[in-house]
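Sample intake sheet
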Amino acid sequence: MPLIVPPDGFTPVSRSAFVGWPAAFVAFLSYAAVNTGGFLIPDYANLMIHEIGHPAFSWAGYYTTILGGTLMQLLVPLACTAVFIRRGETTAVAATAFWTFENLLYVAAYMADARRSAIPLVGG
């Protein structure tokens, strides 16, 4: 059976979830838009996932070790999204997919800083 189709279909979305989740997403995106520091509240959790990615991918060589943080940071929410797709949990799919794309804000901030190296590294 393919990964994309849950065996029992997707769960219906309640009215409160239909209103609440988009409101939470808009509130977060508003918070992200006005935060000029580049480090958002969820990034503390994302940073822990990022940092574990370096040793987790160290088996594959120097460059993969360096890139492993970002790989792990994107793979974890993608894996959560895949699990919730398989289980058919509609609102959880939306939340974890949003988490995945929120991580791209964090990645983009570090990519933009790559030449300047003005953002301090953890333990660096």
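Comment: Helices lie at 15-34, 43-56, 62-87, 90-112. DSSP finds four helices and no strands in the chain.
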